[in-house]
Amino acid sequence: DAGITQSPRHKVTETGTPVTLRCHQTENHRYMYWYRQDPGHGLRLIHYSYGVKDTDKGEVSDGYSVSRSKTEDFLLTLESATSSQTSVYFCAISGGGSANYGYTFGSGTRLTVV
Amino acid sequence: SQQGEEDPQALSIQEGENATMNCSYKTSINNLQWYRQNSGRGLVHLILIRSNEREKHSGRLRVTLDTSKKSSSLLITASRAADTASYFCATDGRDDKIIFGKGTRLHILP
After folding, report:
1. Among partner residues A33, A48, A107, which is closest to B41 by beta-carbon distance?
2. Across the interface, do A56 and B95 touch by the CB < 8 Å criterion?
3. Residue B89 to chain A, least CA–CA distance (Å)
4. Residue A35's beta-bridge partner residues?
5. What is the pLDDT of residues B78-109, one digit of tens each?
6. Which of A5, A30, A49, B20 could be stapled to A55 by a disulfide with Cβ–Cβ 3.0 to 4.6 Å?
7. Pairing of strands B43-50, B55-58
């Protein structure tokens, strides 16, 4: 997807290990979001950022932390991965508040915790 | 929290036919958005309709919004195989966040 990349695309990790997913954008957008997508649940917001060092929790933030030290990078960390965190993770960016702008999504990271 | 709910959950139609998906939501909104997700890919923004708009078009897509019924519909005309995907509606919430429904899986039959 133009202007936004996620890494890695796939990862298998063991329970209890820390994992960091990276979202990188070249659009200079202020807003960045992390979602997870699971069958039967749709997309659920984990954390979001409205500027450098400005982040807030979403509806499923337990077990996750984020950091945004630069406009272009938004990192999602699973401090101690659990099997319930096996999911597909999507990053999204937006040029403005949700009221007036659509989101651009990355291609996703498929994370498996064994 | 307010959330769009798509209906039906799954839809199969013949290529060339029109596909209609519906979205209902619970509380007042400023806008409603529709997204498409092809298998294994991220979501793609299709269209945004504001609360003061009743209908919007984009190519073969037609979106309607009825705020009195708290519902929206997405019509895809003259469907193609490439339209096979999941379609999500999303409504705006507080604090610059939008909330996604669980999606409609559309399958276009050859």
Report:
1. A107
2. yes
3. 11
4. A45, A90
5. 999 999 999 999 998 666 678 898 999 999 99
6. A49
7. unpaired
Shortest Cα distance from B110 to chain A (angstroms)? 26
* Residue A88: per-residue pLDDT: 97
**Contact in structure between B23 and B105 (CB atoms under 8 Å):** no
Q: How many angstroms separate the CA atoms of B38 and B84, rounded?
A: 7
Q: How many residues does chain B have?
A: 110
- Residue B40 DSSP symbol: T
Strand order, beta sheet including B5-7: B5-7, B19-24, B71-76, B61-66, B55-58
Of the candidates B65, B62, B63, the one whose C-alpha atom is nearest the C-alpha of residue B30 is: B65
pLDDT digits (tens, 9 = 90+) for A49-85: 999 999 999 989 999 999 999 999 999 999 999 999 9
Longest dimension (CA), chain A: 40
Q: Give residue A41's pLDDT.
A: 82
Sign of CA dihedral B51, B54, B56, B62: positive
Q: CA A47, CA A66: separation in Å to the nearest integer?
A: 7
